[in-house]
Design brief:
It catalyses: (R)-pantothenate + ATP = (R)-4'-phosphopantothenate + ADP + H(+). The strands form 3 sheets. This protein has a 5-stranded mixed beta sheet with strand order 3-2-1-4-5, with helices on both faces. A 5-stranded mixed beta sheet has the order 10-9-8-11-12, sandwiched between helices. The protein has about 250 residues and is α/β, with parallel strands linked by helices. It is about 35% helix and about 25% strand. Helix 3 packs across helix 7. The chain binds adenosine-5'-triphosphate (ATP), pantothenoic acid and potassium ion (K). The site of pantothenoic acid has 12 residues, from helix 3 and strand 9.
Length: about 250
């Protein structure tokens, strides 16, 4: 039995794994991580901690000390040049975010055909993998909350109390808004639709094929994608944790 920890820039995602099965999922803010892990450790014996982080180092150090104090095996996964049949496209392989690496691994477990992973978190990342497991590269763009905060932080009149600024299932990008709230929501949806469309086009051109690769979506804001994007995607909330599960030692 292992405890898997995916530390993102906004939140940490934690779960317990037995074989291929993941359960007891939790998403917590960084300051609650140790307590959450401690709670899981006290309810499950013979555990090992497996973690991957794109956040600042102190959290990894805290988890290491915690594991040592409990006498639990601890492993931090870093982005490798290749592993489990997946090949990193970055020449400076360690610079590729480990969450991007693990999400691709998680998708590859399920699909050996060409695939795109779109992770809608603090940042939105796009990554393409071909049928041979070769990562072909990707994109990094601001996430929804990051875009909203940048917009509101740099304008006087765009943010306002009571305005709903999250894109919903209503396709606001199909028409133009006539309230500030609709203009912002529609604008964010248009950005998302543009990223998806461009990802599919660029993937087809990169792979020199007319077939669109299978599209996997994950991340804390994936459920806020407009219906037209969700309906063409495989939604896997725990893709990064699934990838991390490949590293279990048991
Ligand atoms: N309870 C919550 N607390 C904070 N953010 C939440 C919550 N529920 C959903 N979200 C959304 O999830 C987004 C973060 O997604 P996620 O947790 O996947 O990011 P992350 O893994 O921390 O970030 P990244 O991997 O990009 O560094 C936030 O921008 C926010 O809009
Ligand atoms: C892009 C994020 C923030 C997405 O979580 C993360 O994967 C990261 O910090 N990456 C490092 C830069 C890179 O992947 O090139
Ligand atoms: K993430």
């Amino acid at each position: 039995m292992s405890i898997l920890i995916d530390v993102g820039n906004t939140r940490a995602k934690v779960c317990v794994s037995v074989g291929r099965e993941l359960f007891a999922h939790k998403a917590v803010c960084h300051k609650d991580l140790i307590d959450t892990v401690n709670d899981l450790v006290s309810h499950h014996n013979e555990t090992e901690l497996l973690m991957a982080s794109v956040a600042a180092a102190p959290l990894s150090d805290e988890l290491l000390s915690f594991s040592e104090s409990k006498g639990i095996k601890y492993q931090e996964v870093k982005t490798p040049p290749h592993a489990f049949g997946l090949i990193n496209a970055y020449r400076q392989y360690g610079n590729l975010g480990v969450d991007r690496w693990l999400a691709m691994l998680g998708a590859r477990v399920e699909c050996r055909a060409p695939l795109i992973v779109i992770d809608v978190g603090t940042a939105i990342t796009v990554d393409l993998v071909d049928e041979f497991g070769q990562h072909k590269g990707g994109w990094i763009t601001p996430g929804l909350k990051t875009m909203r905060e940048a917009l509101f932080g740099n304008t006087q009149k765009v943010a306002g109390p009571g305005q709903s600024n999250t894109p919903g299932s209503d396709d606001l990008s199909a028409r133009f808004g006539i309230t500030t709230a609709d203009c912002v929501s529609g604008g964010l949806q248009a950005v998302l639709i543009g990223v998806f469309q461009q990802a599919k086009d660029t993937a087809r051109r990169t792979l020199k094929t007319n077939t669109a690769p299978k599209l996997f979506v994950t991340g804390g804001d994936a459920t806020k994608l407009p219906d037209c994007l969700l309906s063409e995607s495989e939604y896997r909330p725990d893709l990064v944790l699934q990838g991390l599960n490949s590293y279990r030692s048991e």
